[in-house]
């Protein structure tokens, strides 16, 4: 086996997925306890329903382009109990420089392993914990658990440009992790114990999966239609590491399985590694950092 971090350096992958900001940020806080804080919500669902508490003035509600704003939901503070309400991101107007950003501050963020003392969105919901119907959305640093037998963590339902990015997020349990209908970019996520596909597409779209760790799922990465590039992913203890036909550029993926299971247009995936022994820090206790002994 070999290190994802080392591969990232070799490939020159840029894992900072957030582009330069051209508009003013309108920051709302998401805290378990909002006492003493203004523009604060106790769930992401409440924040989304209030359109972030933003004063849109003469612009239509949710129109970030007209208001020239970036809507930021900053999750902060300690969390004894989970955020337990699923939600849909809908009704916003966005573009490449006026977008939605949902992220955790350091006090609420996991350290690469599931942590019940940090923010987590824990729901029992069909079809998904988060349904996104808006272009230009970034989700970063969350923990999501949706154990519903037909539920997923994040469902991409937006139509159009489909600039939807999910990064540094831990997803566990349920049927699926990230994906469904339309385009997305999934970077640096850890997805485990899902009965279906960890990352998947269903329709004609463009999707990217880079630097993800997938463990104990039915299928690691699934492409039913569209253009899907998968690079530098680690897929372990998963029945079908990947399935479908992937676009040129797909390469450097690693699995414990005997084959990756996918086809790559042009057959350029010459750096994939199969039948690998991967040493995690403590997979029994769901710590999927690579062990210092892993080479």
Provide the low-confidence segments as ranges: 1-10, 17-21
Count of helical regions: 3
Give the CA-CA distance, first to last residue: 6 Å
* Main pleated-sheet profile: 9 strands, parallel
Can you describe this structure?
By secondary structure, this protein is mostly beta strands. The longest helix is centred in the first third of the chain and has 8 residues. The termini are close together.
What is the fold's blueprint, element by element?
Elements: H1 4-11, E1 24-30, E2 40-41, H2 44-49, H3 64-67, E3 69-75, E4 87-89, E5 100-104, E6 121-122, E7 128-132, E8 137-140, E9 143-145, E10 152-156, E11 164-167, E12 170-172, E13 176-180, E14 184-187, E15 190-192, E16 197-201, E17 206-210, E18 213-215, E19 219-223, E20 227-231, E21 234-236, E22 240-246, E23 254-255, E24 262-264, E25 280-282, E26 287-290
Parallel strand pairs: 1-2, 1-3, 3-5, 4-7, 5-8, 6-9, 7-10, 8-11, 9-12, 10-13, 11-14, 12-15, 13-16, 14-17, 15-18, 16-19, 17-20, 18-21, 19-22, 21-23, 22-24
Antiparallel strand pairs: 25-26
Characteristics:
globular, single chain, 295 residues, 8-stranded parallel beta sheet, mainly beta, 9-stranded parallel beta sheet
